[in-house]
Recover the amino acids of this structure.
């Protein structure tokens, strides 16, 4: 994009591939936020490699000081900076192109971006200077340099500004109905993610501001238990933002790569609404074996009224693949129960990124998350590597991988540049996914043998045997593989952004989209079964998921029953 | 389509497989919801969060009094302390040790008071793999009944500074 078009207020172009309007101001901010996201992903990724090579007992690369320092750095850069920059880019995209409107305010976009970037740089600097070895959670009374908290506050405020800039655009679009009668589903998901983000970021401000003033010596120390409860209102709810953003990206990528549809708009939208209504006290999941809160509080807030937020994820776990199945069947891929799945574009990195994300999130992340987050079962898992195993399969194997898949379309569509080395891009999601699966399973099994998270060494305790060491070795191997996948993604994307072939004035290169075949009268019924709400292949998949869920869940109750009695 | 405004009249109740799945998923969610209160009343392993406000200095004093009154020997340089069955025991976490070493009897019930003299720690009993949070200012009471005997190790599993990984304690059960 030339500087000339950046100067022009409110200009739009028509996308040469989809025909959708692209606001050029929004495009600029989508670009710079996405670029910063990838920069922080690389920083966090280098940290991840160092950590994996340290927890691998045979290597133990870093000393204890640097292990804890890099662990703090890795957590913040991955979980906060990479993901939130990317989510701001996604919000600016869905809030303009899908709503067929313009960026609400360039000024707000600049303010938000500048705050986020300066906050991130400040926090990273103070960590690397060795003044904030407190982990991402910075549990009081452990205290970091005040600039650590100030950096996070600035970042959170910047993200909040970006979210309100998005809401401004939504409000304008809603008033003028620029998008038509009803808001598109992906944009609706974006709105839901943004609503939860506001709640999460406000918790962040409430936890961080008194901690900052305490670190400055201006106020008394906040209560450590109060801090845990409020901090996790930020820490857990940002993960719910990630879930909602990821599910929206699933719907988007299913459509872009394979022509996936939405079987029932009511069901998909209703499931999004469940997130907003029932996710609010999810910070309880981190306080299940804490003092200060009682059993009634813990149990109520664990299931936040009948697990209806879990129900939302289970519903999307059906509707997303079912929409894909329906779209593929409509194209004529009606053979057998799984003909639609075998013929899906597995060589398209946008598709494989999305579908592997769906599988890893559902089968590993979701099942472990609900089980470990069960009030009593948490006794078996709290602060062990099982927890880390769980969230690396939700937020990395799920959200990050989905965002990677999305990038393979964002760069051609928004940056208007094509990827080179396409064969490498096609295998990248598989390498990354395999690495993360090994990492997550290694962590989960090591945690089952009692290995703690956030620990530089397991040998001082003198109680961990060969299984624990082997599992940590698998964590190391998985970490290295995932880092290779991450590095390929970053290098290919940076190369494409700066040196990729331009595609202005034509449709983007096709990564591989299933073509419509053989629409005959005989397969008409098999093509249109979704009209009756049916998706037999997906039904089989979700029944397998449920069976795994039930077995894992009750196996954990059995393991719990073998412990000493405690109340 | 997910990126376009749906045609008007998009409100439909779920049907077919979709309805079946929503029903199954809802039933499963209800089962999981009921499991927790069920276990609270009928299960033997619960985290009730019983706790009392206590100043860290006061907790250290209580622990010292408990140790002086109940010491029965020494274990690896740490006092070996045997509380009365059914009675109270104190376990102090601080950078970077668990004080003292407790000696318990299998099948007896104890009220173990846990707290920290400095920052947060994690009580992780191995090889049982039972985990509880230890927070300064909070006297966290676990009413615990050992159901097996032997030498058990307490690992700290909340980051507490450079010596974190070497913060090891013991519980002996006879």
């Amino acid at each position: 994009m030339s500087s000339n078009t950046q100067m022009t207020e409110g200009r739009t172009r028509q996308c040469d591939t989809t025909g959708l309007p692209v606001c050029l101001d929004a495009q600029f901010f989508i670009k710079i936020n996405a670029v910063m996201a990838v920069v922080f992903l690389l920083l966090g990724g280098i940290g991840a490699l160092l950590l994996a090579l340290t927890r691998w007992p045979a290597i133990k690369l870093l000393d204890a000081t640097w292990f804890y320092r890099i662990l703090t750095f890795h957590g913040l850069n991955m979980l906060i900076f990479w993901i939130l920059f990317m989510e701001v880019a996604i919000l600016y995209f869905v809030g303009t192109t899908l709503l067929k409107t313009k960026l609400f305010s360039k000024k707000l976009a600049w303010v938000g971006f500048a705050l986020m970037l300066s906050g991130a740089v400040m926090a990273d600097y103070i960590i690397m200077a060795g003044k904030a070895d407190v982990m991402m959670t910075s549990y009081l009374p452990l205290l970091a340099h005040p600039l650590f908290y100030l950096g996070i506050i600035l970042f959170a405020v910047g993200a909040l500004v970006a979210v309100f800039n998005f809401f401004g655009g939504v409000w304008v679009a809603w008033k003028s109905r620029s998008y038509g009668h009803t808001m598109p589903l992906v944009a609706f998901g974006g709105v839901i993610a943004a609503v939860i983000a506001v709640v999460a970021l406000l918790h962040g401000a409430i936890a961080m501001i008194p901690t900052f003033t305490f670190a400055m010596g201006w106020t008394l120390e906040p209560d450590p238990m109060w801090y845990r409860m409020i901090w996790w209102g930020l820490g857990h709810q940002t993960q719910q933002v990630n879930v909602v953003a990821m599910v929206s990206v699933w719907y988007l990528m299913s459509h872009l790569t394979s022509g996936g549809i939405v079987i029932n708009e009511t069901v998909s939208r209703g499931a999004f609404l469940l997130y907003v209504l029932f996710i609010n006290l999810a910070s309880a999941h981190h306080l299940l074996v804490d003092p200060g809160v009682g059993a009634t509080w813990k149990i109520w807030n664990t299931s936040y009224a009948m697990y209806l937020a879990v129900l939302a994820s289970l519903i999307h776990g059906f509707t997303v693949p079912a929409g894909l199945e329906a779209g593929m069947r409509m194209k004529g891929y009606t053979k057998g129960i799984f003909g639609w799945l075998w013929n899906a574009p597995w060589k398209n990195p946008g598709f494989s990124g999305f579908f592997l994300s769906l599988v890893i999130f559902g089968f590993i992340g979701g099942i472990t998350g609900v089980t470990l987050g069960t009030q009593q079962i948490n006794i078996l898992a709290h602060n062990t590597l099982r927890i880390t195993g769980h969230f690396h399969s939700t937020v990395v194997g799920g959200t990050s991988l989905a965002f990677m898949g999305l990038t393979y379309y964002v760069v051609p569509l928004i940056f208007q540049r094509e990827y080179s080395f396409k064969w490498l891009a096609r295998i990248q999601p598989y390498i990354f996914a395999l690495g993360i699966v090994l990492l997550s399973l290694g962590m989960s099994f090591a945690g089952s043998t009692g290995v703690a998270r956030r620990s530089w060494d397991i040998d001082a305790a003198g109680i961990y045997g060969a299984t624990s060491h082997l599992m940590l070795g698998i964590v190391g191997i998985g970490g290295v593989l995932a880092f290779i996948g991450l590095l390929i993604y970053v290098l290919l994307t940076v190369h494409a952004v700066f040196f990729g072939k331009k595609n202005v004035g034509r449709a983007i290169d096709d990564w591989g989209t299933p073509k419509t075949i053989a629409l005959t009268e005989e397969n008409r019924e098999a093509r249109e079964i979704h009209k009756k709400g049916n998706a037999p292949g997906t039904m089989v998949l979700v029944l397998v998921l449920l069976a795994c869920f039930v077995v894992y869940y009750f196996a954990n109750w059995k393991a719990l029953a073998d412990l000493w009695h405690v109340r | 389509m997910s990126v376009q405004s749906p045609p008007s009249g998009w409100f439909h109740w779920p049907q077919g497989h979709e309805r079946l799945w929503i029903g199954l998923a809802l039933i499963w969610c209800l089962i999981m919801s009921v499991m927790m209160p069920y276990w609270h009343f009928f299960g033997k392993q619960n985290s009730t969060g019983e706790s009392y406000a206590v100043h860290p200095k006061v907790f250290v004093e209580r622990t010292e009094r408990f140790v002086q009154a109940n010491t029965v020997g020494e274990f690896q340089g740490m006092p070996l302390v045997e509380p009365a069955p059914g009675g109270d025991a104190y376990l102090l976490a601080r950078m970077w040790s668990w004080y003292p070493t407790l000696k318990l009897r299998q099948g007896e019930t104890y009220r173990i008071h846990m707290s920290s003299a400095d920052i947060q720690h994690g009580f992780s009993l191995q090889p049982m793999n039972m985990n509880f949070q230890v927070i300064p200012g909070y006297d966290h009471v676990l009413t615990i009944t050992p159901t097996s005997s032997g030498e058990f190790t307490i690992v700290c599993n909340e980051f507490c500074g450079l010596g974190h990984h070497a913060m090891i304690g013991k519980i002996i059960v006879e």
Observations:
- The CA atoms of residues 449 and 468 of chain A lie 6 Å apart.
- The first strand of chain A starts at residue 12 and ends at 14.
